[in-house]
Amino acid sequence: MADILTIVVVGLYFLAMLGIGIWASKKIKNTEDYLVAGRQLGFWVFVLLMIGTVCSGMSLLGVAGLGYKAGWPTIWEQIFVPLSIGVCIIFFGVKLHNVARSAGYITVQDYLAHRYESPTALRSLSALAGIIVSLIYLVGQYTAISMVLIWLFDIPLWLALVIATLVTMAYTAIGGLYAVAWASLVQSVTLIIGVLVMAPIIIWKAGGFTAVNEFIATINPNLVMPWNPAGAFAPPYVVSFALLLGLGLACAPHVINNVLSIKDVKYFKWSPLIAFIIYAIVIFLLKFAGFAGLALVKGGAIAARTGVANPTDYVILDAIQNSLPTVALWAIFAVIVLAAVMSTTDRLMLTIGAMFSWDIYKNVLKPDADDKSVLLLSKIVVVLSAIGTMLLAINPPEMLAILIWMGIGTMLATFAVPLLAGLYWRGATREGALASMSLGLLAALLFGFLNYFKVNAMGIDFAAIPLHFSAYAFIISVLAMVIVSMLTRKTADKILDETQTGWYISK
Amino acid sequence: MFGLPDITIIAVGGVVLVITAALLYWGLTFKGHD
Question: For A336-345, B4-13, B18-27, which range has the lowest pLDDT when averaged over its residues?
């Protein structure tokens, strides 16, 4: 379906991103500029960076795909993902920002190393865990980018992946967080306007909001209920889903590191509400577009996808193709999808670069490394992480959403407890944090594996466990923190005061 | 309403309202300072 106009539209978008990268590279003088944008981000750049960071490949393709497959019981995703921005800012951001200002943190690992008096062990474990979960998450993002390029240009998967990787890698590597933040501004505005215009067209084409709901209820009455009677998206699962998305995404390294980059803590006053409202509207519309896609397929207006590993994720692309009259509009929609995916992908790659170059290289392996070599290594790691995940994305999973939730679930089990306990519980110790993080990570990887491959072992059918697998790993992480902390030596009061540890958010 | 059962409207609408009210309260009461 590619024509010259499509190539021009997508080509212009890619050039704009590269232009932002080149412009941003002129602002980079040191590692702090590269990794936290010199702590100079303004209100709207920050709000749209947060939206762009949590709005991933799943947000356009996976959200609609899940709506198509399972209907209204999945709507909780559209509430808890926008809420995660507020959770991140309120429960982590306010304190971390204030302490980071005086202590000069570049990454959240700086905070963990300081709070738990563990400059080597916890910092390394945390950075390695962050790199692993970010890579899992990145695979899902590259899968989404390649799906759009294949749909638009009818090119082989490997070529789509190479194109997507080269462009995202180039502007992220040269421009650091300045480039990522300003690219996110453009990408988020593109996404918001695009979804506000195009999703209603798909819904209207399928007969309107009420007609779509009435139609899908005739297919299966559970599709319009707020939860399923049993299994996935039954009430217990929905509760674990709130924990997974609301807290897991909030403490994800690529999301939480953004709070270190703002100019003024007063931005935290209204950013939670504004980000929630804007993003909830966008992501609700996308889910409704997925319901409309189901009505269009079952009504015979469009054919169900065959011959691909993840057919439901293509529903919004096929619905757009059916609902919009010209190829030029498809190309614009493709740019919207690419914007959504790339806004997360770039931040993830930069986060991996930061965790390796700053936390592992500068703070563990070679403390006397100069700023220039750390900066260069950050850029090299961004390039390597892009190439590595591109290779992993060659075999996409059956459903994009599942892979991305696995990434978020691992983040929840690994980071939530050490961060929350560190910020709010003066009894949390270094050994407790190490036990909590390592056992949480291992449990999440194990349960994720057993669940994904539908293993039946020890009398348990892991494909049919009542909660999302990450909830079990999270419980293990909580228990490890509490039990081990109670048995080990307390952190010095001086450190607890410096890191503003205690049962309050802001004094 | 909207072709949906009442329970769906109440559950989803109720949770969205509670979250919005909580974030509004945060905005009205937060007095952040560096």
Answer: A336-345
> Average pLDDT of each block of 10 consecutive residues along chain A (507 residues)?
74 89 89 86 94 80 89 95 97 93 90 94 91 82 77 79 84 89 88 89 93 95 94 89 93 91 93 97 94 92 80 84 76 79 85 91 92 91 87 68 81 95 97 97 92 85 87 97 97 95 87
A86 close to B (CB below 8 A): yes
DSSP secondary structure letter of residue A428: -
Tokens 């950050």 -> residue: A378
Domain boundaries along the sequence of chain A: 8-392
Q: Which of residues 378-417 of A touch B (CB under 8 A)?
A: none
Residue B10 has pLDDT above 90, yes or no: yes
Residues of B with Cβ-Cβ distance to A94 under 8 angstroms: 30, 32
Determine the Cα–Cα distance for residues A86 and A50; give it in Å rounded to an integer: 10
User: Are A75 and B12 within 8 A, CB to CB?
Assistant: yes
Architecture of domain A8-392: Up-down Bundle (1.20)
What tokens does A176 get?
Answer: 């650091």
Residue-level pLDDT at A287: 95
- Choose among A71, A185, A139, A1: nearest CA to A452: A139
Q: Say if A102 is an interface residue toward chain B (CB within 8 Å).
A: no
- H helix intervals, A299-370: 315-323, 327-354
Q: Is A263 helix (H, G, I), strand (E, B) or coil?
A: coil
Q: How far apart are CA A374 and CA A426, in angstroms?
A: 33
Q: Which residue of B has its CA nearest to A87?
A: B23
Question: Which amino acid makes up residue A234?
Answer: A
Both tokens of residue A127?
A: 């950075």
Predicted pLDDT at A291: 95
* Nearest CA-CA distance, residue B10 and chain A, Å: 9
For residue A118, CA distances in Å to A114, A124, A128, A416 come to 7, 9, 15, 18
